[in-house]
Amino acid sequence: MFSVGQEVAAGPRSSGFPEWNRFAAVNDEFVPIHMDDDAGRAAGYPGAIIMGRLQWSYVHRLLREWLPPEGRIEAVALRFRAPTLRNAVFDVKARVLAVRPGTERVFADLEVWVEDGDGVVSAPGTATVSVPAQR
Description:
- By secondary structure, the protein is of the alpha+beta class.
- 27% of the residues lie in helices and 36% in strands.
- It has helices at residues 17-27, 32-35, 37-42, 52-66, and strands spanning 7-9, 13-14, 72-78, 89-101, 105-116, 121-132.
- Strands 1, 2, 3, 4, 5 and 6 form a six-stranded antiparallel β-sheet that branches.
- It is elongated and about 55 Å long.
């Protein structure tokens, strides 16, 4: 299932007000810098910026869609380094760094990241996933 160097990508996407509004409603995150361009500019950004937890959810979705049904996401961590603006094109990607066989499960340590349309990484991170060990 896992091999060192293996890469997976969600494919280019854009996220705008409809997605942000749904996410904010579910998570009670109607923070002005995420919903209003003027508030984003007042905070020093070019406009409204995507919620960090929404970016994290896109990473989670990539991993969930890549893993088989019996796979598990063990851990995910992201560092937000640059804002992603409303309607900007971005992609979510992952690369297998290490595979660790266990008695019950096989674990893979991953590098994960969100990058913009120019390939600039705005949110680098790590993840660990697992699948049942073959018997």
